[in-house]
Write a structure and sequence with these properties.
heterodimer; A: 136 residues; mainly beta; four-stranded mixed beta sheet; four-stranded antiparallel beta sheet; elongated; B: 145 residues; three-stranded antiparallel beta sheet; flat
């Protein structure tokens, strides 16, 4: 019926690869889809985390690894039974390795409409350190 | 005496076997989640009073979602707008997509269209569709004369 939405992603990305660490919650974990773009001043990360709120998102930065984990409270209404399912609910987790030029104290995170928006400003020195390559 | 009877051929039996095997494997793996034919993927919950349809639609603003319902069909359409990105920005990853979508779902019963409610929270759309009174099953008493 719908022809125009061929490019839309329908399926959630596979579960996060379970590394050495075991998780305390026995729920499925998905890798949130993300857009990352960079300007001269900052790097922006957008991640789809439907069902999670600003209270259930955890962002940690350890050394140079930025980890996004989002917990989703099950939205199963009472008094009804699941009849048909095309998606599963689950938590989200994903890690990115950052370059050293991020100003760690100025990282900002906002969650709205199921999307996490992370602003990672670059440190001033890194902005200045960039050397312009000239062409003749 | 007329009797409609046909002996199943070997192929019919093979087809049946195949269907049953498919069902067996579908139900054991991935908790009977089927893949969505189009965006958005939906989940349906039901009870005697009606049904609930939920869909995960991150980054779609509620004002860009249109829900049309008539007696026995529901259509969800909308537009997922792209983020405003500065021209000089360099994309490192682009996994999320944008565009318009529409999906129509055939409902298994007549719906009381005046009582349909939808709410959108944290990127999850939830539509409640109460069953029309006229459509609810009625008990029929058998009169004995």
């Amino acid at each position: 019926m719908a022809k125009k939405d061929q490019t839309m992603e329908i399926h959630k990305q596979n579960e996060a690869p379970s590394d050495e660490m075991e998780r305390t919650r026995s729920r499925r974990t998905f890798v949130p889809r993300a857009d990352i773009y960079e300007t001269e001043k900052e790097i922006t990360v957008l991640a789809d985390i439907p069902g999670a709120t600003e209270k259930t998102v955890d962002i940690t930065l350890e050394k140079d690894v930025l980890t996004i984990s989002a917990y989703v409270e099950p939205a199963i209404p009472s008094g009804v039974e699941i009849a048909y399912a095309e998606y599963e609910e689950g938590d989200y987790q994903r890690s990115f390795r950052l370059s050293g030029e991020i100003d760690r104290n100025k990282i900002e995170a906002v969650v709205s409409d199921g999307v996490l928006r992370l602003r990672l400003p670059k440190v001033q020195e890194a902005q200045a350190r960039k050397i312009k390559v000239k062409t003749k | 005496m007329y009797r409609r009877f046909r002996k199943p051929s070997i192929w019919q039996e093979m087809d049946q076997l195949q269907r049953e095997m498919n069902r067996l494997f579908d139900s054991s793996s991935r908790g009977r989640v089927v893949s969505a034919p189009s965006y958005p993927a939906i989940n349906i919950w039901t009870n005697d009073e009606g049904m609930l349809i939920s869909a995960e639609m991150p980054a779609v603003h509620p004002e860009n979602i249109n829900i049309d319902v008539n007696a026995d069909a529901l259509s969800i359409s909308g537009d997922r707008k792209s983020d405003e990105v500065a021209k000089e920005a360099i994309f490192h990853r682009r996994e999320r997509s944008y565009g318009s979508f529409s999906r129509t779902i055939q409902l298994p019963f007549m719906v009381d269209t005046n009582k349909v409610e939808a709410n959108f929270r944290n990127g999850v759309l939830m539509i409640s569709l109460p069953r029309a009174e006229a459509d609810k099953p009625k008990k029929i008493t058998i009169k004995s004369s």
